[in-house]
Amino acid sequence: MASESTRIYLVRHGETEFNRRGVFRGRFDVELNEVGLRQAEETGHALAGERIEFILASPLKRAVATAEAISRIIGVGYETADAFNNIDLGSWQGVPKKKVMEEFPEEWRRWTTEPEHLVVPGGESVEHVKQRASAGLMEALNSRRGTFAVVTHRSVIKVLAAFMLDVRPPYFWKFYTDNAAYCVFEYAGDGFTLLSWNVSSHLSEKVREVF
């Protein structure tokens, strides 16, 4: 079982060119750009004194590269976990957001207002992401001991925050995280407490991404 009090660090991966250019990522396996690589290093140094004992990461390259940098700097291992993979955005993956907005205005409206009720063709629902990610989180809490980090994507951080804080839809756009920022939660066995949100003061450069 989980220890009496466990800290969980949710870390968003560093920047990619798709973040900077406004392109939907989803499961598209885009790598970190130069800024993202630097951000990953900066986040590693920011977490160096937090006594993190293990790291779980999405299997996508941008999350793995971020986890690798943090792992090397703080001196603990990492492993990938499919539970923390990004939302599958189906036919939107690799497509500029502007193009989706122009060609699919109703779907874009739903994406920007109530994505909990949208399933992109060939993709998965926000609720499904919430179910698999929360199951992965609870498995980690119930099978291991110690403070840990999850290096993942903004959609996963959003649904995990909603799960831990018991926030009801619509919640997706009520949470914002920068690339390579982190959030801190505490689990005490009977519930979660949010300690810090979107910690990004360690980053030398970042770009704000609204939708």
Task: Describe this structure as you would to a colleague.
By secondary structure, the protein is of the alpha/beta class. It has a single domain, classed as Phosphoglycerate mutase-like (Rossmann fold, 3-Layer(aba) Sandwich), CATH 3.40.50.1240. The protein has seven helices and six strands. It has helices at 17-21, 34-46, 61-74, 97-103, 105-113, 126-143, 154-165; strands at 6-12, 54-57, 78-80, 148-152, 182-187, 192-199. A six-stranded mixed β-sheet has the order 3-2-4-1-5-6. Helix 2 (34-46) runs parallel beside helix 3 and helix 6 (126-143) packs across helix 7. The radius of gyration is 16 Å and the shape is globular.
In terms of DSSP E residues, the strand content is: 15-25%
User: Looking across the biggest beta sheet, what order are the strands in?
Assistant: 3-2-4-1-5-6
The total of helices stands at 7
| Fraction in helix | 25-40%
| CATH C-level class | Alpha Beta
Low-confidence stretches: none
Task: Tell the overall outline.
Answer: globular
- According to CATH, the fold-level topology is Rossmann fold
Structural class: alpha/beta
Per-chain topology:
Layout lengths: L5 E7 L4 H5 L12 H13 L7 E4 L3 H14 L3 E3 L16 H7 L1 H9 L12 H18 L4 E5 L1 H12 L16 E6 L4 E8 L12
Parallel strand pairs: 1-4, 2-3, 2-4
Antiparallel strand pairs: 1-5, 5-6
Helix pairs in contact: 2-3, 4-5, 6-7
